[in-house]
Amino acid sequence: MNAEERDLQIHPIVPENVLANSKTIVDLHSLSSSLLGIAAGVLGLESYSGFLFYLLGTLFVSFLIVTFPMGGKPNLYVRGGWKDVVAADVTGGVMGYVLTWTLFFGLVRV
Amino acid sequence: MSRSLPSNILVAVSSVLLAHACYSAHEHSLLPATAPSLDGTPTASSSLPLDITLETLISVCLLLVGIVSSGWELKPISLRKYAGLLESGSIIPGGVDAETAAGKGRGLFDGLEERPGFLDIRHQRKEFADWLKHVNATS
Questions:
Q1: How large is the C-alpha radius of gyration of chain A?
Q2: How far is B36 from chain A (nearest CA, A)?
Q3: Chain A contact set for B67 (CB, 8 A)
Q4: Which helix (H) or strand (E) holds A38?
Q5: Residues 6+ apart with CB under 8 A from B14
Q6: End-to-end distance of chain A based on CA atoms, in angstroms?
Q7: A20, A100, B1, B26: least surrounded by Cβ within 10 Å?
Q8: ipTM, 2 decimals?
Q9: Looking at residue B41, what is its pLDDT?
């Protein structure tokens, strides 16, 4: 029994709550990445600056998630702490972001 | 998820702001790409004006704040804390009505509290023997 298993035995966790929390966080991230895509399209960002904008926006959203629903204590709600909040569903978030980014870029500028 | 009134207002106001910024950017893109300036030389006006940029950024930030702060519920993952909240009645687990769970002290092991008691196997054997006797007597 290694250290992590022993820690789980001493401080057991509720798997359903872990799943529900990560689903909520992924929902928030995908919703906010669509909104960030709208902003990037309106601002007319292109290539690297657009992805940099997404990176900054995701960090901002993660900060908000840690601040508001978690009350500044991410370790209570996510196993990996704030790193898991930032890294939740990056690929899906980028896809939603690029979708609305290109859509609004085309809508506003063409 | 229960939305609070301030975050609802925030979401509504910043959505209007974002829509206005979007419309402004569209209108700005309809202007001719090169506009004659005062001294007659054409200057490029393709980049977005500062007010539209600021409006977009501020409205998106406010919208994100409004969405994230609108009452998303997370449950504690450690069993100790979760069981404590269940027993004190501040969290009602899914699948249980709020009315039936009105009393406190309904913890994780609620099912064990309401299980049937032990079967009295001797009594049941006596009943079965009586029934058997009755059936044999009538036939």
A1: 17
A2: 21
A3: 28, 31-32, 35
A4: helix A15-43
A5: B59, B60, B62, B63, B66
A6: 62
A7: B1
A8: 0.88
A9: 52
Residue A18 · residue A80 · CB < 8 Å = no
- Are B65 and B10 in contact by the 8 Å Cβ rule? The answer is yes
A19 touches chain B (CB under 8 A): no
Tell if the CB–CB gap between B68 and A28 is shorter than 8 Å.
Answer: yes
Q: Which two tokens stand for residue B75?
A: 């449950």
| High-pLDDT (> 90) share of chain B, % | 37
Residues in chain B with CB shorter than 8 Å from the CB of A43 are 25, 48, 53, 56-57
Taking a C-beta distance cutoff of 8 angstroms, is the pair B16, B75 a contact? no
- Say how far apart CA B101 and CA B38 lie, in whole Å: 75
Query: Is A38 in Cβ contact with B22 (below 8 Å)?
Result: yes
Distance CA A15, CA B78 (A): 9
Burial readout B82-121 (b: 16 or more C-beta within 10 A, e: otherwise):
bbeebbeeebeeeeeeeeeeeeeebbeeeeeeeeeeeeee
Asked whether the beta carbons of A22 and A83 are under 8 A apart, the reply is no
CB A32 within 8 A of CB A88: no
Q: Which of A52, A104, A42, A107 is nearest to B51 (CA)?
A: A42
Query: Most distant CA pair in chain A: distance in Å?
Result: 62
Q: Which residues pair with A86 in a beta bridge?
A: none
* C-beta atoms of B75 and A20 within 8 A: yes
pTM of the model: 0.76
